[in-house]
Amino acid sequence: MAELTALQEWKNGWKLVLASFVGFYSFSILISAMSAFMGPMGEEFGWGRTLLSAGTAMSSIVTMIFAPVFGILLDRYGTRRIALPGVFLSGVGVVLMATNTGSASWWIALWLFYALGGLFVNTPVWAQAVAGLFEKSRGLALAIALAGATAAHSTIPPLSVFLIDAYGWRMAFVILGGGLGTIAWLVCFFFFYDAQDRVRTSAARQASAVAEAPRELTGLSLAEAWRSTALWRIGISILVIMALTIGFLVHQIEILVETGVSRGNAALLAGLAGAMGVVGKLVTGFLIDRFPGNWVGGLTMSFAGIAFFMLVGGIASPLLIVLA
User: Fold this and answer.
1) How far is CA 305 from each of CA 211, 229, 286, 298, 309, rounded to the nearest angstrom?
2) CB count, 10 Å around CB of 47?
3) According to DSSP H, which parts of 214-259 are helical?
4) What pTM does this model have?
5) CB neighbours of 301 closer than 8 A, spacing ≥ 6?
6) pLDDT digits over 87-118, tens only?
7) What are the C-alpha distances in Å from 24 to residues 260, 280, 314?
8) How many whole angstroms separate alpha carbon 126 and alpha carbon 148?
9) What confidence category does residue 213 fall into, taking pLDDT thresholds of 50, 70 and 90?
10) Which tens digit of pLDDT belongs to each residue from 150-169?
């Protein structure tokens, strides 16, 4: 098969990238929304932030333990068969948050359910699907697909504050999970087909040249991956940056409210951070297609450190908050 140009790759794969963007957006709804829900739920139940954020920690632990298992399932069954039930379960998980009546154990149980569903729609699902169709523009395609999470960080906080003020926090969970979750599932159902799916679909085999000979991503064996110092460095880097960013993300609105910022403005600032995150994803993807990934990653991730330093040193300064 002749090597595809970047334009041909996008012609074959733009629907997949769109579906991946929307699917990853739906996965990120709950994490993005939690900073808006902490205040109302804390006031109603008398809970502190430790308990309110405990679910996020439990979700991370579940992901850490079971992610390798789902990686095996992903290799065996393909991305579509994993993603579609995952998007559904993620939406249901958000809706079920509305059933909380003040029981701490039930709160943790709800997060455990959400975490198990989230394993089906975490980063590897979308990344594997996109990488199988793109080579020339793989970095940019991955950046757009994974920008779904940062797009959620941009739009969900102000939307959550609006819904909570208008309908209460329980109905806000239902609208976010049921409404946005349904849209995401439909988009993925119609558009999310990776290279292997196209081989199994006769219509796609006739319509797309890439379906005749899908790109094989051989990768590393399990033993080779375990011994790879590069993968260990990547994993440790992700652990550090996610510990900082997720920890701040969950609490950002309440942190800003305590400095005197109104909840509405705090939600807008959270949305601004998410919007700039989308820009950062696209710039990073563009650079990765042209420069060594380790340099690009080191440079772009360093901006997060600068932002945290600015917040620590000038949290009471509106200008520094906006810049951070």
Assistant:
1) 43, 24, 22, 11, 6
2) 17
3) 222-227, 229-258
4) 0.75
5) 237, 241
6) 999 999 999 999 998 899 999 899 999 988 88
7) 33, 16, 33
8) 10
9) very low
10) 888 888 988 999 999 999 99
